[in-house]
Each structure stands twice: as C-alpha cells, then as structure tokens.
Sequence to fold (178 residues):
Amino acid sequence: MSPLELLPWLLLAQAVVGGFDTLFNHELLAGLPHRPDAHAEIGLHTVREGIYAMLFGGLAWLAWQGAAAWLIAALVAGEMIVTARDELEENRIRVLPQNERVVHVLLTLNLGLIIAVLVPVLRLWHAQPTGVQPTGFGALSWILTAFALASLAWSIRDFRAWRRLRRAAGLIAVPRAA
Fold:
C-alpha cells in the first residue's frame, strides 16, 4: 500500500478514536463544556477540531500541490502544537481517567504515523505546479467528509462553550445593556 493509499485509513482512525475521546471522556466523564476551569482546554479543542475539519475534508478530495502543500504541513504542525499545549493544560486542571491517557497515546502515535505518511506525499505534491487537484478515495472520501463536517460542527459548539466558560470564569467582561 502506497503512502497516499494509507493516508485516508490513518485519518479515519484519528477521527474515530478522537471522536470517542471527545464524546466519552470530554463530554460524559469530565463534562468539560460545563466547567469554567476548563475554558483553556475547550479553547484548544476548538482549534484542534477546526484543524481536523480542514485536514479530513481537504485530504479526502484534493491533492495540495506546489506551495499549497505547505498549507497541509502548517495544519499538521499546528495540531502538534495544540496536542503539546493540551497535554499541559489537561494535567494542570484535572486528573485524567486511565482510559483517556491510553486514548491520548493512541492518538499521538497515530498522528506520528500520519506525519510519516504525509512527508513523502507532500514532497511529491510540492514538486508539482502550485494548485489543488481533485483526487479521491471512494467511499473513504465520503466518510472523511462526514467526519470533517462533524469536526467543524463540534469546533463551533466548543467555541461557543469556550466563550461562555470565559465569561463564567470572569475572564471577559459581559457588556451591560444601556
């Protein structure tokens, strides 16, 4: 299997495991969107979900060639920064359940695999004239698109929770009616 053929499967694994982590650990167990002390963590999750929405959707259907390959590289670099910062923030505000620690290890290892697969793909794409070219992975492209839309919706939801939690924590002023 070529790196390009492996990529959608690794993205799918990231989507499924990340979705489980979000729904089970962040929502059901920790209730993060309702905890003012979790505002910074929810803010990081907002960024992460936006990044994955772009990666899932963008890589499902397009080859990012020439200078456009740097956009994908920048998104992956951004996700690495968010992951590192999120780990620090989580450990600052809460004790993570053991299953969440294992899930985070799996997500980080899979992100490493995504990067290892993306490097040769981005090198090939970068050698092409700048632009985006249609590509696809059959049904996997549609599944990744569904996960992209879910990630985007969850990013918007978490952004709204982040704003609400910042107000609750007294970090931003609430305008008064005149």
